[in-house]
Amino acid sequence: MTLTAADNWTYTWTNLAEKANKKDIVYSVKEVTEVDGYTTTEGKVENGNVTITNTHVPVIPEEPEDPKTTDVTFSKVEVNGSAELPGASLKVVSGETADGQIATDAKTGENLAWTSGDTAKVFSLSEGTYTMVESQAPAGYELAESITFRVTADGQVEVKGTDGSWTVQADAIIKMEDAKTPVIPEKPQSNTPTVDDPTTPSSNSDKQSEKKQEKKSLLPSTGDSSGLGLMMLGLALVLSVIFGFVYKAKRAKA
């Protein structure tokens, strides 16, 4: 039978036989259905009454476990260097691309965006995939390529390579290196002499050049009339000599 609050959680059996085969009959009452949140005490018989007691046990909800986090160290150094490189604008975003949403510290809620200093940064991250991005390099350095990494369920930190493979990072350190900006040599200055100021006095070389020009001006040029006369005179002399030889030759034959 089932007890309810309507009958005040009681029930009475009547006209029960006392003996069977001349032997006393022993009756027992047992609760066969457990009630959630209650414990049951075996019934005691007193003056023909059996009492079964249920005791309420309050259910205390279990406190939810904090999500597992991993402390990850972020280091910014020069290529092949070990000391921290200050002045770089850095951030960590969710996902495998540099344009993802800025991630937050799993314990403090702090946005993971900072400027590198003399010491590395440590943040707590939940399981997932992230990307470390350099927005601006320090003066004299080139921007570094972004680094994609993930935090696994067992707390390991792995970096994704260019071939798509994942490599476990010792001590959960993500190290980003900056290369120095190449120095371009300056072009040598031209040795082309400058033009002298016409107002400055002439040098000795200028005076010597002027004398040479004067000497040249004394010589006849092929275009002058005097030069042409001399040429005509020379031609007349040559013709006279030729005429003389011809004349003598004719007289000798006569």
UniProtKB/TrEMBL annotation:
Residues 178-222 are annotated as: Disordered. Residues 207-217 have a biased composition (Basic and acidic residues). The chain crosses the membrane at residues 227-247. InterPro entries: Collagen-bd_Cna-like_B-typ_dom, Ig-like_fold, LPXTG_anchor, SpaA_PFL_dom_1. The keyword Signal applies. Residues 219-254 form the Gram-positive cocci surface proteins LPxTG domain. NCBIfam families: LPXTG_anchor. This is Collagen adhesin. It comes from Streptococcus gallolyticus.
